[in-house]
């Protein structure tokens, strides 16, 4: 087995072992809110929960490392800075994908139980995953640049600014505007030949691709930053 791959895998396992207690709490939340969402037919609750967990797991891993001065210790080991950063970004991606894979059976069961929006929510999973990749790209880079404490403020701003803009838009613009936009979108034939379903699939793939590209750029910038940083 390649030495670099083994090292990165070992660093990822270190994060999993450190977060063992947190993972147990997250599992309890998933079971509780998953059951509540199934009974109340509110699929969006599960999506919001899994989205929050997939964002918070990497942040918690950073906090554990910072609390025990892991980076200072790791630099005395045969582990490169690039390997440490690669392991953290890989852990972030796997956490996001794993959380959203859990959503698929939950939403499938919800659809069988009569939830009207379960299948629509399932179709939106790729879009949500792409957005989370973008958020992780910004938050991971900010934490490497500013540290876990100040990096959290950047994460908070990244998450809350779009929400604030959406809330302001719903307050200012009448409901008829959003209904008109939705109706226009549904009736369009994109580029003259693409159906709505095909356009949505291509759009979802594009958002995921943009998120992955952002993660790669963030990883590269973090590597450059850590190579110049002294501990």
Features:
231 residues, mainly alpha, 10 helices, 0% strand
Describe this structure in words.
With 231 residues, the protein is mainly alpha-helical. It starts with a helix and ends with a helix. The chain has one domain. Helices cover 85% and strands 0% of the residues. The mean pLDDT is 79. The chain has helices spanning 3-18, 20-40, 43-67, 70-74, 81-112, 118-123, 125-146, 148-172, 175-186, 196-228. Helix 3 runs parallel beside helix 7.
Structural class determined from secondary elements: mainly alpha
- End-to-end distance: 31 Å
The average pLDDT value, as a whole number, equals: 79
**What general outline do the C-alpha atoms trace?**
globular
Strand content: under 5%
Write down the domain tally: 1
Helix percentage range:
over 70%
- Unreliable stretches: none
H-E string: HHHHHHHHHH
Biggest sheet layout: none
Continuous helix count: 10
What is the CA-atom radius of gyration, in angstroms?
20 Å
The overall strand count is 0
Can you describe this structure in just a few lines?
The protein has 231 residues and is mostly helical. It contains 10 helices and no strands.
Question: Helices and strands in order, then pairings?
Answer:
Elements lengths: L2 H16 L1 H21 L2 H25 L2 H5 L6 H32 L5 H6 L1 H22 L1 H25 L2 H12 L9 H33 L3
Helix pairs in contact: 1-5, 2-3, 2-5, 3-5, 3-7, 5-7, 5-10, 7-8, 7-10
């Amino acid at each position: 087995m390649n030495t670099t791959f083994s090292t990165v895998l070992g660093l990822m396992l270190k994060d999993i072992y450190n977060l063992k207690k947190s993972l147990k709490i997250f599992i309890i939340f998933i079971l509780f809110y998953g059951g509540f969402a199934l009974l109340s037919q509110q699929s969006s609750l599960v999506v919001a929960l899994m989205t929050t967990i997939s964002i918070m797991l990497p942040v918690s891993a950073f906090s554990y490392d910072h609390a025990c001065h892991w980076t200072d210790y790791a630099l005395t080991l045969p582990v490169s800075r690039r390997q440490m950063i690669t392991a953290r970004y890989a852990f972030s991606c796997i956490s996001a994908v794993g959380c959203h894979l859990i959503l698929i059976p939950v939403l499938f069961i919800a659809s069988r139980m009569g939830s009207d929006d379960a299948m629509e929510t399932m179709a939106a999973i790729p879009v949500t995953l792409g957005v989370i990749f973008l958020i992780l790209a910004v938050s991971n880079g900010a934490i490497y640049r500013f540290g876990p404490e100040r990096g959290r403020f950047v994460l908070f701003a990244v998450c809350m600014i779009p929400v604030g803009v959406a809330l302001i838009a719903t307050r200012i613009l009448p409901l008829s505007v959003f209904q008109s936009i939705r109706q226009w979108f549904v009736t369009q034939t994109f580029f003259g030949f693409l159906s709505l379903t095909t356009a949505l699939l291509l759009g979802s793939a594009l958002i995921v691709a943009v998120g992955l590209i952002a993660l790669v750029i963030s990883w590269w910038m973090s590597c450059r930053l850590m190579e110049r940083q002294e501990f």
